[in-house]
Amino acid sequence: MSDTGFRPAHGEADWYDERLPRAIRSHRGNPFRTLATVTLVVVLASLLGISSAYLIIEREQPLNAVTIGPWHAYPKAGTSEADPYSVAIYTRGAVIPLASGEGLALVAREDSNGHQLDPTCEYRIAGQTPSARLWTMTAVDGHGHLVKTMSGRVNLASDALLRNADGTFEIVAATRPHSGNWLPLASDARAADGLRFVLRVYDAPVTTGAALDGVSMPTIDRLGCP
């Protein structure tokens, strides 16, 4: 009995025929080349992801900041809504942020003119702060570490502050003592060490981003440098 079934005129092998136009000719894949390409893509993607994460963490500035003049606040830092990068930054620096029910920390890395703070210079911090039961102003280095000062202290507290009749204040941040409100800076500071001012307000209503809208914050003006 003869085979009357359908037989295709062409088989799969015909698609690799050298006589076919290059545009429609199939190419036999090289498994080693495919494996090498996939491996290269995975390695490059991993390096890109790790590098970008490292750069964000290394800059030591959490995300989702609320900016008021030279001051930056991170209302979500001590909450469950904190982003993974910010959590990694705090963990790497062994920093425990204030919880929303405790208060809020505001950090200044620049003066009011946008210049990086320099621990060898003198600054005037003047104006008002958000209402709070207590607040402290601290001078730390560029990595957030406490420094050694001539007086042995690195901060000022609101309960021991001299104020003007209208409730405003002026603080001089400098290495050497000053009359009035003096915030000591590092006694052997170098410009490369960096400088930050950290204002921590406790038992205050301004613990969320919305509550910070319209809040008055002190200005930071450079008085001079050696």
Main CATH class of the largest domain: Mainly Beta
Number of folding domains?
2
Rough outline = elongated
State the share of residues found in helices, binned by percent.
10-25%
The order of strands across the largest sheet is 1-2-3-9-5-6
Order of helices and strands: HEEHEEEEEEEE
How large is the share of residues in beta strands? 15-25%
Q: Which spans have pLDDT < 50 for at least 5 consecutive residues?
A: none
**What is the arithmetic mean of pLDDT?**
78
Within the CATH hierarchy, at the fold level, what is the topology of the largest domain? Answer: Jelly Rolls
Assigned CATH architecture of the largest domain? Sandwich
Radius of gyration: 31 Å
Distance between the termini: 109 Å
Structure characterization notes:
The chain has 226 residues and is of the alpha+beta class. It folds into two domains: 11-58; 63-224, Jelly Rolls, CATH 2.60.120. The chain has helices at 31-58, 84-92; strands spanning 66-68, 71-73, 103-108, 122-127, 134-140, 155-157, 169-174, 181-184, 196-202, 219-224. A six-stranded antiparallel beta sheet has the order 1-2-3-9-5-6, with no helix packed on it. A four-stranded mixed beta sheet has the order 8-7-4-10, with no helix packed on it. The longest helix has 28 residues, at 31-58. The radius of gyration is 31 Å and the shape is elongated. It starts with 30 loop residues before the first helix and ends with a strand. 24% of the residues are buried. The mean pLDDT is 78.
